Structure formats: structure tokens, C-alpha cells
Amino acid sequence: MNSQHAAAEGGIESVESFFLPSFCAVSMVFAVVVIAELLAFILTLVSPGVQDDPWVNLGLISVFIQWIALSSAALLCLARPLLSRMGNVAAALISYLLVLLVTAVVSELAFWLMVRSTLFPDVDSGQHAAFLLRNLVISTVVAAVVLRYLYVQFQWHQQVKTEARARIQALQARIRPHFLFNSMNTIAALTRSEPAMAEAAIEDLSDLFRAALNTSHGQTTLDEELMLARRYLNIEALRLGSRLVVTWDLEGVPLDVRVPPLILQPLLENAIYHGIEPLPQGGTIRVVGTVDGGSLQFEISNPVPAAARGRQSQGHRIAQENIRQRLQIAFGAGANLDTAVTDDNYTVILRMPLAGLA
Fold first, then answer.
1. How far apart are CA 143 and CA 76, in angstroms?
2. Which residue of 93, 136, 213, 309 is 20 to 30 Å from 322, comparing CA positions?
3. What does the DSSP 8-state code read for residue 274?
């Protein structure tokens, strides 16, 4: 099982390290059609005799270019599994040659159809070399521009992912020093009077550190994420006592879905550090989980000290921005993290698409 999982992860990394997108996807086919039609429109404007019958010229040039574009996309779609095993330079070169090959084949077929057709009386075999050369030159330039654009986009996405992974590591490795010192002091105080409670606190703390130091970037189940959050709250409850009250409302929330690790614990840590701890009387943190419109949603709310009302602290922003970026990496635009502030309450709303959590 572990070897299969590792192989699967290796396959994912192989696909992610390949610059060429999947031309089998409907979105890519649509993009190819649009780009080809724009090219056909430009060539129609600059072609001789455009004023004689522009719509007929546009139609003929569009059919010709669409044949080349869609045939090239189909060939690259079929060749992608093989190309993805090569280096990006070799894959780009072979992709480039495949597009030129398709251009040459389609141009040959189109030319001899025109020669044998009565619709093109001015076309003769003496124009064969010029027709083929002109199409290959245009294809050479367009293919080079498109492949270069795809490679630059790929490099940009890789850079964004690398920066995001660094942020993930920073978030997962960041346990506030004051929390660690307070936890150790609490455990030390309990060692003689409540040894069983001290042992449980050590186990909770070790689980938190294990999760924080995990650099695999894999996903965890929601049940495990909630268990980790509760372990953190157990440690803080030993220090804050009755000042900390947490209510949970998770009815109907699927616990077996997979989520990025450490997306709830930092938000609860913020709620305690910026909400509960500054209040002499403490307060209640409310965690509400719901399924709404195909999305899994969590609302974490805490009381706001009077001095902090109407502003968001730097600590809130750092943790929230890290989690927001991790959600964007994992789920794209379907996930987000929003905040809402009232007179006496601060609420974080976290949304993830259920379709991406299977």
C-alpha cells in the first residue's frame, strides 16, 4: 500500500513538473479554437484580395487553420503521456516538430484538394512550394510563441507553488514560543499533583509538534484535524481553566473528507491569543461546521476585547493569509477564508468545496 501511494505521488509530481497542459481538456480545446480563429482573422485581413469577398476568405482560412490547430491539439493530447516522461526541453522540441509535421501534412492535403477542385481555378502545381513554405513559416512563428508562453506560464506557476510551500512550512513549523513555555510550565506544575493529567498533556503536545513538523504536505481527514484542534484546546484549558469555553456544532459535517493539515488549529490559537486571553473573565469560542451549497464551511467566533475592536492584529493577518493561500493551492477559487467583525465578536469563515475533498 505504501509503495502504491508513493508511486501515485511520484506520478503526480511528474505531471506537475511538465510544462505542457492537457490538450484533452475541454477548456484547452476551446482556447485552441479561439486562438486559431483570431489568427485566421488576422491572416484574412493581410491576405491578397481580401476586399473581393472577405467572408469567403475568412471561412476558407478558418477551416484550414482550425484543421491544423485541432489536429495538433489531438496529437499533443495523445502524445502527452510519452512527452511527460521526457525533460521539458526535449518535450518542447518534439512538440514543436509535431506541430510543424501536422502543418505540412494538412497543407499538402489542402493544396492538392485545391488543385483538383474547380473552386480554385487560379491554383496550379507551380505554387506548391510557396504555399507549403508560407504555411510552415507562419506555423513556425505561432508554435514558437505559444510554446514559449506555455513554458513561461508553467515557470510562473512553479514559482508560486514554491513560495506557497515555503509559507506552508512556515505555518506548520510555527508554534508560538509563549504557548510552548506556558504548556511546559503547566505540565511541570501538574507532574506532582496530577500526574495522569500531565501525561495526557504531554501526549497532546507531542501530537501537536508531530503535525507542525510534518513536511510531507499531504492531506489529513477532517476527523484527524478536529482531533488535533481538540488536543490543542485541551492544553490551553489546563492553563486558562474556566476562562476558556468551547462549543462545537458539527452536525451533518462529513468527518471522512480529506483537508489540508493545520487549517483549524491556527485559527483557534488566534481566537485564544487575541480574544480569550486578554479578557479577565475569558469567553466562549464557538465552532460551527455546516455543509452549504456543495461547500464545507466552518465558522470560528470569539469575543473581542474592547481595545481591539475595529482593528485586525498582525497575528491574525499572518495566520489567516497563510491558510488562505494554502486553500487556494489545494482547491483554487472554490475555497476561501473571510472574516467578520461585530461590536463584541470576531468571526472567521472558512469554506472548501466538497467536490475537492474526496
1. 12
2. 309
3. I
304-319 pLDDT per residue, tens: 887 665 555 544 577 7
Q: How far apart are CA 256 and CA 357, in angstroms?
A: 9
pLDDT for the residue numbered 250: 93
CA-to-CA dists, residue 46 to 54, 61, 129, 134, 142, angstroms:
11, 12, 20, 13, 16
Secondary structure of 8-62 in HEC code, one letter for each residue: HHHHHHHHHCCCCCCCCCHHHHHHHHHHHHHHHHHHHHHCCCCCCCHHHHHHHHH
- For residue 183 the three cell numbers come to 504548556
108 Rama class: left (phi>0) / alpha (psi -120 to 50) / beta: alpha
- Residue 233 and residue 266 in contact, taking contact as beta carbons nearer than 8 Å: no
CA angle 274, 275, 276 (to 5 degrees): 115
**Are 109 and 63 spatial neighbours (Cβ–Cβ below 8 Å)?**
no
For the chain, the average pLDDT equals 81
Could you tell me the end-to-end alpha-carbon distance of the chain, in angstroms, rounded to an integer?
Answer: 19
Query: CA 93, CA 177: separation in Å to the nearest integer?
Result: 52
The DSSP code sequence of 201-229 is HHHHHHHHHHHHT--S---EEHHHHHHHH
What residue type is 23 in one-letter code?
A: F
For β-strands 295-303 and 220-221, DSSP reports them as: unpaired
Q: What pLDDT is stored for residue 11 in this prediction? A: 37
| Cα–Cα dist 351/333, whole Å | 10
pLDDT of residue 170: 62
Burial class for 119, CB neighbours closer than 10 Å (0-12, 13-18, 19+): exposed
Q: What are the mean pLDDT values of the chain's consecutive 10-residue runs (358 residues total)?
A: 38 57 90 92 75 75 92 93 89 94 93 76 76 92 92 85 68 58 79 83 80 63 89 87 93 88 87 90 94 90 76 62 81 87 89 77
Beta strands in 144-199 (DSSP E): none
